[in-house]
Amino acid sequence: MRFAPLVLLLLLLAACGRPTPLLDLIQEEGELVVLTRNSPTTYYEGPEGFAGLEYELVQLFAEELGVKARFIVPDSFAEILPKISRKEAHLAAAGLTVTQSRESMVRFGSSYQEITQQLIYLRGTNRPRHITDTIGGTLEIVAGSSHEEELIRLKEKYPDLEWEARDDVESEELLYLLREQVIDYTIADSNEVALNQRYYPRLKVAFDLTAPQRLAWAFPHSWDSSLYDAALAFFRKIRKNGTLDQLLERYYGYVERLNFVDKRTFKRHVASRLPPLISFFKKAAEETGMDWRLLAAIGYQESHWNPKAKSPTGVRGIMMLTQATAKQLGIKSRMDPEQSILGGARYVRMMEKKIPERIKEPDRLWLALAGYNVGFGHLEDARILTQRRGGDPDKWADVKQSLPLLSRKKYYKDLRHGYARGREPVAYVDSIRSYYDILVWLDDEKNKEPETQEPLPLTKAPAAL
Known about the structure:
By secondary structure, the chain is an alpha/beta fold. The chain has helices at about 5-15, 20-30, 55-65, 80-85, 100-105, 145-155, 170-180, 190-195, 225-240, 245-255, 265-270, 280-290, 290-305, 325-330, 335-350, 365-375, 375-390, 395-400, 410, 425-445; strands spanning about 30-35, 45, 50, 70, 90-95, 105-110, 115, 115-120, 140, 165, 185-190, 205-210, 215-220. Residues about 255-260 and about 450-465 have low confidence and may be disordered.
């Protein structure tokens, strides 16, 4: 027993020399540092603040730890894993695919989603049936991505394979370049393809390049697993209580319902869904001084004239109002078509007041709608960029050329509000204008005398104004 004090002393000395667990340090400092990337599937700034599946997961995890999350977006995707391996952040939440080569660099946490790598081409061109069908064409991918790893593996079998790995773009921009026919092919994860096909319906999947692959957060290799273990426990919890499924549904479950609706479908909805709503649109138009057909076009873009519509973020009704907006506008029931339409019309007018008075219609309205969709901070960035590029920041035709550039690092890095999914407000406004053109044409046809009726084109060009 005489050795007991000595053993106790040794134990105390060992305890004193033991480093504080990383989780304890994070909680003491109150900050969780996270590497991510700008993408519709990960992290971006929307009209009502930051959003994205990774953003929401990290925010929930930080809340669980009792700390604040600080996000860092490196200059290129290829920098993320090396930075994590050097412990320049606590973790990376960036839609990272788990691969064998990556596991030697970082430690992956629990998987929360599965994707497949897909070869994408443009409808109307020859569909590749095999990866070798891309030989002779222009194939571009994101440098440092799992797509590059897969191509390197395939090149051992097919030496003639060629591609360009770019460190200055994200997958979203490559899909846009494909849509613009600047490149012939790209490879993207299936979740990114599904989201972007809503805006670029001509993008087609040639085939799956891989079997399903897991997405997970990445952590530095370390003897200290306190943060890693906390993340495993967090994912177990949100799987068990259904939170993870709810988030996946919020971001991906509605994609099919939001796919491109062609003009024939729209005309069917004009016949079946619009008639009971016309009197409400006309009443709201009288109060606000707007064209009822324009209000109807906005309503269709928002909900397809479905009074029970509900978005992943909780906005509801024909005009898809948030609860806070409805309360501000004096609307008691967002699900009541008459109230929703009136509230939507008032809200559009309210949005127009955010646009400088010198800007005249119709540019004033298109800019207001774009700002409503992407956020007025991003809209202002686009107007500044338009002016820098020699365009007129008060003209929608010029601003719409600059908005898509907000997703390109070359342009957004010097702007106050940074990255934005700038192609979405362009698609949003152009769709409303197209629906409006059709409604005007159908209304004019209906009001014509039969003997004076002449055939007219179905639509006017969306960019005509």
